[in-house]
Amino acid sequence: xxxxxxxxxxxxDRGVIRVSGEDARDFLQNIVTNEMDLxxxxxxxxxxLLTPQGKIISDFLVIAVPxxxxxxxxxxxxxxxxxxxxxxxxxxxxxxxxxxDDLSEASAVIAATDGSQLPADAGLTYxxxxxxxxxxxxxxxxxxLNEIASEDMDAYHARRIALGIPDGGRDFAYGDTFPxxxxxxxxxxxxxxxGCYIGQEVVSRMQHRGTARTRAVPVVFTEGxxxxxxxxxxxGGKSLGHIGSxxxxxxxxxxxxxxxxxALAEGQTLAGGGLAFTLEKPSFLHFLFPGEPGFGAAx
Length: 299
What we know:
Blueprint: E1 6-10, E2 14-20, H1 24-29, E3 45-50, E4 56-64, E5 73-78, H2 82-93, E6 99-102, E7 107-112, E8 124-127, E9 136-141, E10 149-151, H3 153-163, H4 200-209, E11 214-221, E12 232-235, E13 238-247, E14 250-256, H5 257-265, E15 271-272, E16 275-279
Parallel strand pairs: 1-10
Antiparallel strand pairs: 1-7, 2-5, 2-6, 3-4, 4-5, 7-9, 8-9, 11-14, 11-16, 12-13, 12-15, 13-14, 15-16
């Protein structure tokens, strides 16, 4: 039995899909945004499945299952996206020697709330590949779960928000968001060197033309309050985008950065839900922010 009362939370909004069989790695390599060669027993991956138009159907973490436990891969995915994701995976399976199983009811995803790694007896453990400061995660059986994860899920999301990591369904909409807008290119979620995958042409075009004007970016609310999720972000009566999740006076917002730049140049206040905010740039973001030298319309 794993050690009790870890500084970890049961992420009730996550589900688990198992992809197994002798063609599992090649199957995923041909359809997901990232390089499956990077997914090993010691390194989880991050990526997504896109529509042919390049919009995100779902994002997920990919974890290699040890051969001693049957091999294959587990997808740590948003629970609400699991049915559609399963449907799409089955559609692309064709004659591949692959088995697809929804393990969401029997499994649970837990995540550290303090940035630490989880002990090996917590389940199938892995470091969050998006950002090291997010710490460790584990997929475990639901039996005995209350003895493992002692923290509330809100504690995990507060840390995620403080670090500036967007979350699907909260900070970007599935089916209506390009990978660049959800920061796939900043969080190691997309490869620009691998061969074709679904939606690859659109993603490659955005990368080479620098046309990602809309981005999910961290913001700080000057009054230390949290607006309602989904409210419009605006300046000078013009829409800039919308506010996503927030906690402790910090949040994420999906914004048109060129419009933000225009508003700041005119001395206007950025606001969401009646609360003024400023942009905050964490070190993992490598694109130009409004106000930085060289910033242009193709941010």
